[in-house]
Amino acid sequence: MHSSVMLRRAFAAAAALAVVPAASVAQTPDTAAVPKVGAQAPDFSAPASTRYGLLKNPLQLSALRGKTVVLAFFPRSRTKGCTVQMESYRDRYATLFAGGKGIVVVSISTDADTTQQSWARDANFPMVFVSDSSGAIGKKYGVIDEKNHYDTRVAFVISPDGRISYRAMPFKELTEAAYAELGSAVASASHNTSAGTH
């Protein structure tokens, strides 16, 4: 009895995830268009929000110089894979992102800032959300799916000097190794800079 229940649950989970590989393939951006590790991160300024409300001023990436920045592009608020990803970031915020000490996590999608903000509030997400409603940021980073008008799931780590130190294309939100790798990249970017300043 118990094993048949477990089996049914496993099948249900597999069925729920069956669409993920296809989605991941579709979300792999054109590598040539994506800024390379070592390149200066393209600057942008766009409407932003947190769980506490809409920010009065647009978030400008260059204003975060001196901090390690994680840019987490994702397709849509409140969808299955994106929820797994953002909840994982939230639940591991202390370990992956040092609780936000010297690290800023910027989650970016083509959703309206009001859509992102209500999701951040409802789920108590500690990250900053940026609305790329025009797709301009996704274009700069080579991650926009022009046909469907959404940003594909790609993560970048930007060192405090403004250079890209890591990129995951795509970020595999259902794979434990993806979070471990991201955490290592964040720690490395933060450590290298702080080591260089002593």
How would you sum up this structure, described in words?
- Helix content is 39%, strand content 20%.
- It contains 7 helices and 11 strands.
- It has helices at residues 2-17, 19-26, 80-91, 93-96, 113-123, 136-140, 176-197, and strands at residues 45-46, 48-50, 53-54, 59-60, 68-73, 103-109, 128-131, 144-145, 150-151, 155-158, 164-168.
- Residues 5-26 and 194-198 have low confidence and may be disordered.
Give the overall shape, derived from the CA principal axes.
globular
The beta-strand count equals: 11
- Briefly, what CATH class? Alpha Beta
Task: Tell me the β content.
Answer: 15-25%
Q: Biggest sheet: strands, sense, closure?
A: 7 strands, mixed
Are there runs of 5+ residues with pLDDT below 50, and where?
A: 5-26, 194-198
Topology:
Elements: H1 2-17, H2 19-26, E1 45-46, E2 48-50, E3 53-54, E4 59-60, E5 68-73, H3 80-91, H4 93-96, E6 103-109, H5 113-123, E7 128-131, H6 136-140, E8 144-145, E9 150-151, E10 155-158, E11 164-168, H7 176-197
Parallel strand pairs: 5-6, 6-7
Antiparallel strand pairs: 1-4, 2-3, 2-7, 5-10, 8-9, 10-11
List keywords for this structure.
198 residues; alpha+beta; Glutaredoxin; seven-stranded mixed β-sheet; two-stranded antiparallel sheet; 11 strands; globular
